[in-house]
Amino acid sequence: MVSTLSNAGIVMGSGVHNKLIGQIGENLVAAKLGTLGYYASPYAGNVPGFDLTAVDSKTLSSFPIQVKCSTANTLVHSQIDRWIETSIDSTGKYSFGELLQLDHPNMLWIMVNLPHGQIENARYFICRESDIQKLAVERFIAFIKRHNYRRPNGGNSKQAILTLKELDRYEDNWSLIAPASKTVTTHDGRESNDL
Source organism's superkingdom (predicted)? Predict the structure, then answer.
C-alpha cells in the first residue's frame, strides 16, 4: 500500500499540513542518513537556521542540515533579500546590489520532494547553502528582468522560490555526505557507490 497523507484520512488546513510534511521530510532525511552511517536527530522546529544534526558514527564529527520538504513542484521558499541586497523604488522597480555574505555557506541543505504525498517515491536534492543562494538569485533576477525589473501584476513581493527544475542537478547528490566507499540507494532504486 502506498502511504500518503490523504489516504490516512487527514483533513487539515494548510498550516497543519505543512508542519506534518516538514516533520515527515526531517524524519525521512534522518532515516536516510542512518543508512549512510550517521546518527541523525531532528529538532522539531526548535532551532533557528537548521532542522537536524548528523553525527558520523565512526568519527563522531557532526554537522547541521537544513531540510525542506514539499509535495509540490516548489521546494524552497525564501525572501530574495536573504541572499542579495535588494531595493524596490516607489514605482515598484527592483534593483540589486552585492550578494550577501552567508554565515554558513557550506551548510548542507536537503530538499525532499514527496510526489502526491507518497513517502515511497521520495526524491532527495542535496547541496550547500551557497548553492541555494546562487540558484535563488539567478532565478529571481531572470524572472524580474523579463518583466522590466517589476512584478508582472504590480506589488513589491520579495518572495523567491526554487523548483524541481532548478534543483535537478543536485538530485541524489549524496557524495556531499556519504563516504566514497558507501553504497547509496538512489530515488529510483538503483544502488551506486560511484559517487
Answer: Bacteria
CA–CA distance, 67 with 47 (Å, rounded to integer): 12
The per-residue pLDDT for 195 is 35
Alpha helices in 3-153 (DSSP H): 14-35, 129-146
Q: How far is CA 151 from the centre of its chain?
A: 25
Per-residue pLDDT reduced to its tens digit, 141-152: 999 999 999 998
Residue 179 pLDDT = 58
Q: Does 14-179 carry CATH code 3.40.1350.10?
A: yes
What residue ranges do the domains of the chain occupy? Answer: 14-179
- Beta-carbon contacts of residue 17 (< 8 Å; ≥ 6 apart): 5, 10
For the chain, which ranges sit under pLDDT 70?
Answer: 1-15, 45, 179-195
Quick one: pLDDT at residue 189? 56
CA-to-CA separations, 84 to 48, 94, 145, in angstroms, rounded: 20, 12, 15
pTM value surpassing 0.85:
no
Count of H-run helices and E-run strands, the chain? 3, 11
Nearest to 177 by CA among 70, 22, 62, 50: 62
> Which three cell numbers, joined as nine digits, stand for 172?
541524489
